[in-house]
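Here comes my example:
=====
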Amino acid sequence: LAFITASCAPAFHLPSVARPEPPGTRKLVSLAPVAMTTVTFKPSGKTVEVDGGAPLSLAAYRAGVRIAYNCKSGTCKVCEVKVNGRKRVACCTNVPQRGKITVTTPQ
């Protein structure tokens, strides 16, 4: 009998994460290439790269930027921020599939 010594698992790169995921977050792994989006938070100036389509609140968490929230459904507008100059609620907004965005948070 011959044994296969090489791993049968497909080789793919998982991006490194600067901060751990929040408790209860599931990590989905896809073999398809993922477009990355650069998110810059102002006025702090912190920048983070996240997968396209990720929630804006997750990008803020990874960058260490605190965005206040209350209802998590967007109705109270406590988490309102400006994304490229347009008002959005962070709890219900996903980052675009690729490119760069600037998020202005209240101080």
Observations:
- Confidence is low (pLDDT under 50) at residues 1-14.
- The beta strands are 36-42, 47-51, 80-83, 86-89, 99-104.
- The first strand starts at residue 36 and ends at 42.
- The helical segments are 56-63.
